[in-house]
Every structure is written in C-alpha cells, then in structure tokens.
Amino acid sequence: MTDHLLVESGGAESGPACERFVGDAVRLLQDGHRVVLFLVENGVTAAVPGASPRVATFLRDGGELWVDTFSAAQRALPAEDLLPGSRLADMDEVADRLLEPRLRAVWH
User: pTM (2 decimals)?
Assistant: First the structure.
C-alpha cells in the first residue's frame, strides 16, 4: 500500500472544506493505506477537542495526526490542549517524510 501525507492548512474555521479533506484521509485509512495528517497554519485548530469530528474519527481509525509545533505555538496551543493521540512535529520531520519514495503528498 502507498503511504500518504495529507497537509491541512485551513482548519475548522475554513468551513466544510477541511472536514471533506479529512474525510478523504479517513477513507484512505479505511482502504488500508498508512496516512499521516499534518496540521499547519490555521489547520492546527482542528486538533482542539471538539473542533473537527472527522479528525477525531481519523485518530480513532488509526491515522497519525501531526500538529506543526511552530503553528501551534503561534496560536497558544500547547500539546496538552490537543486531541489525545496527536503529536507535535517540526517541518524537518515533514521534509524527511516527503523524501520517502512510496509517499504521496497532498497539501490543502
């Protein structure tokens, strides 16, 4: 199976587009793919409990939720205020993942 890195920059405030994009990540998981959802810029707000039902579903279904350390700090979101199972990640980790040969990446 192909690995996927989906990057969400809009967050829950951007309306239904974020939920649809995260829904794509959930469907990929359900099809047996390994998926990392990386939240960056305003997208980090989707990692706040209750902000995005689909992000909670994504975690429950076995997805990896990465939250950009810098973006979270700029929005005063410490790790303890984020969904359980999410983790802070730096851009160098994302860059390393992008170099993996079997990875497909989509930025939204």
Answer: 0.92
